[in-house]
Amino acid sequence: MATLDSSIVNIALPTLTKDFGVDIYQVKWVVVVYLLVITCLLLPFGRLSDQYGRKRVFQLGFLIFTIGSGLCGLSSSLGALVAARIVQGLGVSMLMANGPAIITAAFPFRERGAALGTLAMVVSTGLLSGPSVGGFLISHFSWPSIFWINIPIGIAGIGLAHRFLSKDRIPVQKPPFDWIGAFLQIIFLLCFIVVFDPPNISISGNLPLPAPRWIMAALTVIFGAAFLKVEADAKAPIFDLSLLKNTTFWSANLAGLLMFVGFSAVFVLMPFFLEEMMKFAPQQAGLYMTAIPATIFVVAPISGRLSDRIGSRWLAFAGALIGVLGLFLMSGILGEGLSDSSSGIAIILGLASMGLATGLFQSPNNNAIMCSVPSEKLGVASALLATVRNLGLVTGTGLATSLFTWRREVTGDFISAMQLTYFIAGILMTGAIVFSLWRRGGGHHPHPEDAADPTASGAAR
């Protein structure tokens, strides 16, 4: 639901611009607010889930998201739609904070990689089907239908979660929730995101007034330090700093961050290359872009199952290596690189290489992270996993667009700007290779359902 809603709304932005009589700077709030709410609330809801039950928070997330979808469909102005998207983001953050945790708790160790691989496959299905489903609904039923479709799915999700999710082991004594830490974390993440992707949006229609990056960088350091200090002293922190003592946990998260930073460069620039340089129609460009999620759809379940048998380290390493090679090939550092004379096959192979890299990397890496923490901290680990993914995408998008814009202004050449951006993205992604090999074996924390599982040892190798 979350990934489908993200991709399905993107295809509706031009229609929303016309129907509401606004420009792109205003209508982008429909997407921006949704992502900001999700990113900032993942960790707080992860902690609440550990304290009050993942099933309870997960079901509540379905309910709030369904209500938000209905409000979106009823919106008669841009402001109302943005407010309804905040409600949607609130619900989705509850869902995303708990998905990997629920799966980790539900499956024995030897089956977790396959289960998390299936989750990655479902995520790619949402990304893959969003543009086509959205285009069909908008063409035949107008834009509110892209939100109405969530309502029956949400109702079914609430019922299925109630019927099939196991009852959580909720601690008898619950320490007070870390409200100060939650507030500082939200401010810290907002400042961090603005450093790499300054907002250039004005709801009022006036000229945007972006905050200077150096001020936002200073605020990021200040609020980040305050957040760490508060978390170190809190009885029940929303981010347990003891997790950073776990080499597998922090190295796999860093690898994931750098992987998504590099991946986002392709995701944000390739549509412009296809439409501006290759002169493809939007529908044709969208078809080419499906090479990424289609490859993830095939590879992620396989890599997840393999990680159950051989561990995560070398699979994640291989995925990151393929990603780096793919970016270097598209940048021209290896081979000719992408240009306006590239064949369709070359473009598809370049995009498929990124799908192969992500599909091969993500499921084993997620498996390593979730198996490296004790069961009472699965909610926080799951939330941090999603937070890191979102931060990587947002940060990478900001870096890629800034670097591309600067280079294109200097040279006046689209191709050289894109190739330089892909090269820098490949350099950053080499960090994912390093941190994929950094993790150690023996990082598995046994969960209650592992008691009878003789294979549950050395999980995060």
| pLDDT averaged over residues | 81
* N- to C-terminal distance: 32 Å
The CATH topology name reads Growth Hormone, Chain: A
Shape: globular
Percent range of helical residues: over 70%
Architecture in CATH? Up-down Bundle
**Alpha-beta content class:** mainly alpha
The topology string of helices and strands comes to: HHHHHHHHHHHHHHHHHH
Q: What's the CATH first level?
A: Mainly Alpha
Which consecutive residue ranges, at least 5 long each, have pLDDT under 50? 201-205, 451-460
Task: Tell me the number of strands.
Answer: 0
Q: CATH H level: which superfamily?
A: MFS general substrate transporter like domains
Radius of gyration from the alpha-carbon trace, in angstroms: 21 Å
How big a fraction of the residues is strand? under 5%
How would a crystallographer describe the biggest sheet?
A: none
- Return the domain count: 1
| Distinct helical segment count | 18
